[in-house]
Write a structure and sequence with these properties.
The complex is a heterotrimer of chains A (111), B (146) and C (475). Chain A is an alpha/beta fold. Chain A has 2 helices and 9 strands; from the N terminus they run βαββββαββββ. The C terminus of chain A is likely disordered.
C-alpha cells in the first residue's frame, strides 16, 4: 500500500473544521504550500482555499479537502499534521519524517 | 550631446502636437522618476534623478516653439545668428515710435505671427539660412513684447 | 513554531511576524494628523494632535495640556537656528518637531499594534531648503525613517483626485494656521502635475488671531474666530468686525493666487475647480473672496483638516507598492548664485519641474588662484542680501594655473523633495566630488563644505585623488 501523502490527527482535523466554519464565507478546503524563507530554508504555509488550483494535489482527509501545492508534495510526503497547544502558543505543526534539521525557532526546516 | 527629441523618443519635426509631447513626457517620466525607485541606494537615486532632470529639460524645451527650432537647428550643426543687419532699420523704427509714445503692441503681435509662419516653412523645407534669420527676429520681437 | 490557518496571501513573514506600517504625516502649525492606507482607502489614525509641546512631571508632552508654559506654532520657525524656552529647557524648532513626531509614532504603534516603518511627511509648498532639511532632521531625531517629503497642496490634490477621479486644471487653496500655499495642478489619469505654486510662510490663521487679540484686547480669540464662522455674533463680537480685521490677510492670499496664475499663463476662470484645504477656509469671508476670484464656488468635499495627511498616506502607500501614479512637482523658489556686486544670477527659476538641473562654469580671476567661493541663494529678489542664503562653499586646492584657465563646472540639482545637491568637477584635472548641501543657518559667512581637490600631476593616470568633504550641520 502506498504511503499516504499526508495524514491529519483528530485534533488537527477538528480545529481545521472549526476554523472553516468560523471563517464567515464558503471555502473549498485548505491549501498547504511551501516557501523558502528563514534561516533553514523552507517552511509550510497554511491557508483557506477558495478554489482548486490547476496543479494542486487534492486529498480528502477526515472529510476535509486538503489541497497541496505541487512544490510541497515532495517534502510533505508521509507527514502528519497535528494541532498543538501549550502555555504560550497554539497552532498546526507538521511532523515530517524527511526533515533533517530544524532551525532554532522551529519555523523552518531543510531536507 | 543632449538631444531633447531623442530623450522623449520623438521624431525631429518642428510641428508637434502638444498632447503627443505631453504623453511622451509622462511616459519618459514613468521610466525614470525617482519615486519609481524608493528602495534604491544613493548612487542609483542620483542616477535616476539626473535622468529625470534631462526628461524635464527636454519637455520644457520642446514645449516652446523657439527653443524647439533652436534644438532642431543645433542638432544639424547649423550656427545661429547673433545679429541681422537687414533687421536693424525695423528695430530702430520700432524704438523711435515707442519713444514717441505710440503703441505698437498689435503690430508686434502681427509681426510675431508672420515670423512664426516663416520659421515653420523654412524648417519644413530645410532652408537653414531663412530659418536662422526668422528665429533671430522672432527672439527679438518676443523680448520686446515682454 | 506552530503555524496558523490564515486567509489566502496573509501568511505572516517568518522571523518578523509583526510587519510594520507606512504612514503619511501632516505636521501642521496648529494640528498634526497621521494617516495610513489599510486597503485602498486612506484613513486617519485617531484624532487631530495639537502641535503643542509642554513639559510636565513625566517629561515632554505633546498636546493641549498646559494653557501656559507651552511651545506652539513652531512650524514657521523651522530652518532657523533659534532657541525656544520651555521652563528651564531650551529647544530648537527641530527638537520640538521631533517630539511631536515621536508622539505620533507612539500613537500609531499603540493604535495599530505594529511598528511604524517609515513615513511620508508633508511640508508647505513654499518651504525653503532650510525648512525642508530641518523637517528631515526632526524625523531623524525621532528615529523615524522618511520615505520622502511632499508638498501639502500636492498631497491634498492627490487625495482629492484619487477620491473623485477628477481630471483637468485644479487650484489647491491651502490656508492653515501658519502658512498659505496656492498650487495650480493639472490632474489626469495617473498623473498629478503641478504647473505653478506660490505662498507665504508667514500668513495664516495665527496672524489673524493676533490681530483680533490686539483689537479685542484679549488673548483667547481662537474660539471666537471659529464660532463666528457659524454665528453672526459671539461673545459680543460681530462677524463683520472679524471680517474687517481678516480682510487684509485674505486679500494677500488672493494676490498670491493671482501671481501664480500669471506665472502659469492661465486664466483663473478656465480651471475646473478650486479645492479648499486648511482650517482657515472655514471662514465665510475666505470662501466669498475665493468664489469671487474664480467666478465659481469652491469645492469643499474633502475634509480641510485631514486631506493633506490622507494624501501623504497615499504617497507612502504608493511608494512601497510601486504605484503607477506620477507626482510631478515644481520648485517654489528661484535658485541663484551670487555674482559681482552682491547681485543674484538666477540659475533655476521658480516653477521649474523637479527634479531640475542647472550647470555653471567658474574660473579663476588671478594667476595661481588656489580656490573660489560659491554662494547659493534662494528667492526672487535681485540682491543677495534680500534672499535666503542657502550655502556658501569653497573649492580649495585648485591646480596652479593662469587666471581664467581653471574650469570648475558646478552642477546644481534640486531633487523631487526640493533639496539641493551640488556636484563639482574640475575639468583640467578631472577630479569631482558631490556634496549634499546643508543650508546656512545664519546670515553671517560660514563655510559649510570645503571641497579639497588635490592633484600632484596633470594627467589622470598619475593623479592621486584625495577628496575630503566636511559637512557642518546646523548647530
Amino acid at each position: 500500500m502506498t504511503k499516504p501523502i499526508l495524514t491529519l490527527t483528530e485534533a488537527a482535523a477538528g480545529h481545521v473544521k472549526t476554523l472553516l466554519e468560523g471563517r464567515g464565507k464558503p471555502s473549498c478546503g485548505i491549501r498547504i504550500g511551501l516557501r523558502s524563507k528563514g534561516c533553514s530554508g523552507l517552511s509550510y504555509t497554511l491557508e483557506f482555499a477558495d478554489e482548486v488550483g490547476p496543479y494542486d494535489e487534492v486529498i480528502n482527509v477526515h472529510d476535509i479537502k486538503v489541497l497541496i501545492d505541487p512544490k510541497a508534495v515532495m517534502f510533505i510526503m508521509g507527514s502528519e499534521m497535528d494541532f498543538v497547544e501549550d502555555k504560550l502558543t497554539s497552532g498546526f505543526v507538521f511532523n515530517n519524517p524527511n526533515a533533517k534539521g530544524m532551525c532554532g525557532c522551529g519555523e523552518s526546516f531543510h531536507v | 550631446m543632449f538631444d531633447p527629441y531623442e530623450t522623449l523618443g520623438l521624431e525631429k519635426t518642428f510641428n508637434i502636437d502638444l498632447n503627443v509631447l505631453e504623453q511622451a513626457y509622462f511616459a519618459a517620466q514613468r521610466n525614470t522618476h525617482p519615486d519609481r525607485f524608493p528602495l534604491a541606494d544613493e548612487a542609483k537615486k542620483r542616477d535616476v534623478t539626473h535622468q529625470a532632470t534631462l526628461v524635464n529639460q527636454a519637455y520644457t524645451l520642446l514645449k516652446n516653439p523657439l527653443d524647439r527650432a533652436t534644438c532642431l537647428l543645433e542638432a544639424r550643426g547649423v550656427s545661429l545668428l547673433n545679429h541681422d543687419p537687414e533687421f536693424l532699420p525695423k528695430v530702430i523704427e520700432w524704438h523711435e515710435r515707442t519713444e514717441a509714445g505710440e503703441d505698437i503692441m498689435s503690430e508686434l503681435a502681427h509681426e510675431e505671427a508672420a515670423l512664426l509662419q516663416e520659421l515653420t516653412q523654412a524648417l519644413e523645407h530645410h532652408q537653414d539660412e531663412r530659418a536662422t534669420k526668422a528665429l533671430y527676429r522672432l527672439n527679438y520681437v518676443q523680448k520686446v513684447r515682454k | 513554531m506552530p503555524i496558523q490557518l490564515v486567509e489566502p496571501g496573509q501568511t505572516p513573514d517568518l522571523h518578523n511576524p509583526k510587519k510594520g506600517v507606512v504612514v503619511g504625516i501632516d505636521l501642521g502649525t496648529t494640528h498634526s494628523v497621521v494617516a495610513y492606507v489599510p486597503n485602498t482607502t486612506p484613513k486617519v489614525i485617531g484624532s487631530l494632535i495639537p502641535s503643542i509641546l509642554s513639559l510636565e512631571e513625566e517629561g515632554f508632552c505633546v498636546g493641549d495640556i498646559s494653557p501656559l508654559e507651552r511651545l506652539s506654532s513652531t512650524k514657521r520657525l523651522m530652518g532657523q537656528s533659534i532657541q525656544l524656552k520651555l521652563r528651564s529647557h531650551t529647544l530648537t524648532p527641530v527638537e520640538v518637531a521631533s517630539h511631536i513626531l515621536s508622539h505620533i509614532r507612539d500613537r500609531v504603534e499603540k493604535n495599530l499594534g505594529v511598528p511604524l516603518e517609515a513615513a511620508v511627511i508633508t511640508v508647505p509648498a513654499y518651504f525653503d531648503e532650510a525648512a525642508r532639511v530641518a523637517t528631515k532632521q526632526a524625523a531623524a531625531l525621532a528615529g523615524m525613517k522618511v520615505l520622502r517629503l511632499i508638498n501639502e497642496p500636492t498631497a491634498a490634490a492627490l487625495a482629492y483626485g484619487l477620491e473623485t477621479g477628477a481630471e483637468g486644471l485644479y487650484a489647491i487653496y491651502d490656508f492653515g494656521g501658519g502658512t498659505f500655499d496656492l498650487s495650480l495642478l493639472k490632474l489626469q489619469k495617473g498623473v498629478f502635475q503641478v504647473l505653478a505654486t506660490g505662498g507665504d510662510l508667514a500668513l495664516g490663521g495665527d496672524d489673524i488671531d493676533e490681530a483680533l487679540a490686539t483689537y479685542l484686547n484679549t488673548i483667547n480669540v481662537r474660539e471666537i474666530k471659529e464660532k463666528l464662522s457659524q454665528l453672526e455674533t459671539y461673545e459680543g463680537v460681530a462677524r463683520k468686525d472679524l471680517e474687517t480685521i481678516a480682510r487684509p490677510f485674505v486679500r494677500k492670499t488672493i494676490d498670491i493666487t493671482a501671481r501664480v496664475f500669471k506665472d502659469a499663463a492661465i486664466n483663473p476662470k478656465d480651471i475646473q475647480g478650486v479645492v479648499l484645504v486648511g482650517g482657515m477656509t472655514r471662514m465665510p469671508l475666505v470662501r466669498q473672496e475665493v468664489e469671487a476670484f474664480f467666478a465659481k464656488a469652491p469645492l469643499c468635499n474633502i475634509d480641510p483638516d485631514r486631506a493633506v495627511a490622507l494624501g501623504a498616506a497615499l504617497v507612502a502607500h504608493g511608494l512601497v507598492n510601486a504605484s503607477d501614479t506620477l507626482l510631478l512637482d515644481v520648485t517654489p523658489l528661484s535658485l541663484g548664485l551670487e555674482i559681482r556686486g552682491g547681485l543674484v544670477e538666477k540659475i533655476i527659476p521658480r516653477n521649474t519641474p523637479l527634479p531640475a538641473l542647472a550647470s555653471s562654469e567658474f574660473t579663476t580671476q588671478e594667476d595661481g588662484q588656489g580656490g573660489m567661493v560659491i554662494h547659493v541663494v534662494q528667492g526672487e529678489r535681485e540682491f543677495v542680501q534680500d534672499c535666503r542664503s542657502l550655502a556658501r562653499f569653497e573649492f580649495k586646492g585648485l591646480p596652479p594655473l593662469p587666471a581664467g584657465m581653471a574650469r570648475v563646472r558646478v552642477d546644481f540639482t534640486v531633487d523631487v523633495e526640493g533639496l539641493l545637491t551640488v556636484s563639482a568637477l574640475e575639468k583640467t584635472t578631472g577630479l569631482s566630488q558631490h556634496v549634499e548641501v546643508r543650508p546656512s543657518s545664519s546670515l553671517d559667512d560660514k563655510t559649510l563644505a570645503d571641497i579639497l581637490l588635490e592633484s600632484q600631476k596633470y594627467g589622470r593616470e598619475d593623479m592621486e585623488k584625495r577628496l575630503q568633504v566636511e559637512k557642518l550641520v546646523i548647530g
